[in-house]
UniProtKB/TrEMBL annotation:
Coiled coil: none annotated. It comes from the Bacteria. It holds the Pfam family RecO_C. Belongs to the RecO family. One of its GO terms (biological process) is double-strand break repair. PANTHER family: DNA REPAIR PROTEIN RECO. This is DNA repair protein RecO. Gene3D superfamilies: Nucleic acid-binding proteins, Recombination protein O, C-terminal domain. Involved in DNA repair and RecF pathway recombination. Keywords: DNA damage, DNA recombination, DNA repair. Residues 4-79 form the DNA replication/recombination mediator RecO N-terminal domain. One of its GO terms (cellular component) is bacterial nucleoid.
């Protein structure tokens, strides 16, 4: 009774006349759903504490047999104001939240999603600090692809093992040598682009401070990683479409 947990609000959906359903990634129980009653009313005390892409503290009664809970009270612990005020950063936050939401199962007694929670903590913090949103997202995709068993092979050609590689193939799942790139009619990449992509795939979010010193985010790298997810996991992210479009106009 009266369990108090901390979590990131991944999604908020209108429900009934004045309620919302929240999807929250919690530190203690993994991904949970909550009904927040009356928060769309002007008099609601909880409305400002459950905004998407914020860290909030929630009071509720946990029951391992339930899949959705009634939110009693909420208190925002971290709003990430700078992130929310920047359109590129806030759009990246939306992508991060949707990515983790679709790749994370509803919590069970033996699942806490601690890795995903740590990833989102880094993502929101770095976006709020002003890190390049494309670099942050690229490193998040690397970590999430690794959790899903889809991390691209960037040590050698995925087809023959040749270490002299010339391009990346999302369909094949990693680097290709000249012979197999030509066989699949895939354009060659510059050496510096191959090195940058390999660095991303070897680093992950944990080493973002080091990576940030040497490279900038590149939309081509992010697109390769997104394509791997789309091709091999059959997942589409609506927020990614907007993020990609945004970068054609800013």
């Amino acid at each position: 009774m009266n369990d108090r947990i901390t979590g990131f609000v991944l999604k908020q959906s209108d429900y009934r006349e004045a309620d919302v359903i929240l999807t929250v990634l919690t530190k203690e129980y993994g991904k949970l759903s909550f009904v927040a009653q009356g928060v769309r009313k002007m008099t609601s005390k909880n409305a400002g504490s459950i905004m998407p892409y914020t860290k909030t503290e929630i009071l509720f009664d946990y029951n391992e047999t339930k899949t959705i809970f009634r939110l009693k009270n909420a208190r925002c612990k971290e709003y990430y104001r700078s992130m929310h005020e920047d359109i590129a950063a806030s759009s990246a936050a939306a992508v991060a939240a949707e990515l983790i939401n679709v790749l994370t199962l509803q919590a069970s007694s033996d699942m806490t999603n601690s890795d995903e929670y740590a990833f989102l903590d880094i993502v929101f913090s770095k976006l709020d600090e002003g890190y390049d949103p494309t670099l942050v997202l690229s490193l998040l995709f690397v970590d999430m692809l690794e959790l899903a068993g889809l991390l691209p092979d960037v040590d050698a050609c995925v087809t023959c093992g040749n270490t002299h590689v010339v391009t990346v193939s999302p369909k094949d799942g990693g680097f290709l040598c000249q012979e197999h790139a030509e066989e699949h009619h895939i354009p060659f990449m510059k050496t510096e682009d191959l090195r940058r992509f390999r660095l991303l795939c070897k680093a992950g979010l944990e080493k973002i401070g080091i990576v940030n010193r040497y490279i900038e985010g590149d939309m081509k790298d992010l697109q390769y990683l997104v394509d791997i997810l789309y091709i091999h996991a059959d997942i589409q992210l609506k927020s990614m479409d907007f993020y990609m479009h945004l970068h054609t106009i800013i």
